[in-house]
Design goal:
Blueprint: H1 7-37, H2 46-57, H3 76-86, H4 92-95, H5 102-112, H6 115-126, E1 131-135, E2 152-156, E3 159-170, E4 177-185, E5 196-202, E6 208-213, E7 225-236, E8 240-241, H7 247-283, E9 285-286, E10 289-290, H8 295-324, H9 331-356, H10 367-376, H11 384-396
Parallel strand pairs: 1-4
Antiparallel strand pairs: 2-3, 3-7, 4-5, 5-8, 6-7, 9-10
Helix pairs in contact: 1-2, 1-3, 3-7, 3-8, 5-6, 5-7, 7-8, 7-9, 8-9, 9-10, 9-11
Length: 410
């Protein structure tokens, strides 16, 4: 087994590491201040616009995109460590135009969009001229099971009419949001996994009402998490993505690489938390010596390092499998990393909070925000239980007895 990165991946890691140290980490406090002082809590702070310009000028741009001629053409395995580095800062992925939900939406457009759809939406997203959001989760049903979705997409002549309610529609409150990719049912009578479709809905279409901005554990996100009502929203039939009945398949294709991105970003969170914990315990004195001399603190640090290294290898294996045998064949590993990476990240952040004492639950460090994010992400993009169900089902498959359909005998 070769655990080395390709020369290109190693070179990009060095460049991104330097960019993070020189530009992104120093800009975090500026970003928060500009956001707090601005008239619109969802508007892009000037410092982020500056960071994006620098990242693009240095070729650290759209690195996630592996399709067509639109991105850097990196494999999942090459991109994974870059997402970890960007993930060490909450604002990192956006700097490089590699943040959700745009990444998944851009991949959908690249893979399934018509030439006209790509020209109208994909190109401006790649250039960061606009932002987008993804409307799937609904407040009235368990949306981790896409079969439950109630939002209706009904054809009426040359248009589709959308009626329904979505929530935690991340990104919709950004003033630059121009596109909603919406998942709804076009044919409730079709076979189970052919009922859903995806529709490209311009943000300014009449009939879209944002009812409220939803926080995560009290934290409000700049992009916003909208509770959104769609009432008789009309869009042209040409705005269907991939064809009627393709929604479920498109959603599954979108989630494979996306879960790897989540997992590597979570490892970045964990690395940031571990660094803060080590800095804190070597600087603080209690009971006659540095906190770092306490046995329990050393155990926290040791276990954190071991767990991070373990889960990183699992994520890299998943990325390698997606590259070599495809997303479908790597389904169990992709499900596993969504659970494992967020569990480890949340555990390491929790230890770092404990090591900081009162400071850990304040806004004086990034730990409180990381604690909320790592907990919330164990629900977002499918709760842990859904992914554990996938892993268990595949693990049990070889043990199921095959019966003769004519006699019922094993």
């Amino acid at each position: 087994m070769d655990f080395g990165y390709s020369p290109r991946a190693s070179e990009l890691q060095d460049r991104m590491r330097s960019f993070m140290d020189e530009h992104v980490f120093p800009a975090e406090a500026v970003y928060d201040r500009q956001l707090a002082e601005g008239d619109d809590p969802h508007a892009l702070p000037p410092v982020m616009a500056e960071l994006k310009e620098k990242a693009r000028a240095e070729g650290l741009w759209n690195l996630f995109m592996a399709h067509g001629d639109w991105g850097a053409g990196l494999s999942n395995l090459e991109y994974a460590p870059l997402m970890e580095l960007a993930g060490r800062s909450i604002i990192g992925p956006e700097v490089f135009n590699c943040s959700a939900p745009d990444t998944g939406n851009m991949e959908l457009l690249a893979l399934y969009g018509t030439p006209e759809q790509r020209e109208r939406w994909l190109r401006p997203l790649l250039d960061a001229e606009i932002r987008s959001c993804f409307a799937m989760t609904e407040p009235e049903v368990a949306s981790s099971d896409a079969r439950n979705i109630r939002t209706r997409i009904t054809r009426d002549g040359d248009t589709y009419v959308v009626n329904g309610r979505k929530w935690y529609t991340s990104g919709i409150l950004d003033p630059d949001c121009r596109l909603i990719i919406l998942m709804g049912k076009t044919d409730p009578e079709a076979p189970t996994y052919r009922q859903q479709s995806m529709l490209l809905v311009p943000r300014n279409t009449p009939g879209i009402t944002i009812l409220r901005d939803l926080p995560m554990f009290g934290y409000s996100d700049r992009l916003g998490h909208g509770d959104v009502l769609f009432e008789n929203v009309r869009v042209p039939v040409a705005n269907i993505l991939g064809g009627e009945g393709q929604g479920f398949a498109l959603a599954q294709g979108r989630l494979g690489p996306g879960r790897m991105h989540y997992a590597m970003r979570a490892i970045g969170f964990a690395e940031r938390a571990l660094r803060l914990m080590c800095e804190r315990v070597t600087e603080r004195t209690a009971f006659g010596g540095p906190l770092a001399d306490q046995g329990v603190v050393r155990e926290w640090i040791a276990r954190s390092r071991i767990e991070i290294e373990q889960v990183r290898l699992l994520v890299l294996k998943s990325a390698w499998l997606m590259d070599t045998v495809g997303n479908a064949a790597a389904r169990m590993e992709v499900a596993a990393i969504k659970v494992a990476a967020l569990e480890v990240a949340h555990k390491v952040v929790d230890r770092a909070v404990q090591a900081h004492g009162a400071a850990g639950v304040s806004d004086d460090t990034v730990l409180g925000r990381l604690y909320a994010i790592t907990r919330a992400l164990r629900i977002a993009d499918g709760p842990d239980e859904v992914h554990l169900r996938t892993v268990a089902r595949q693990e049990l498959a070889p043990y199921k007895k095959k019966t003769d359909p004519t006699t019922g005998a094993a």
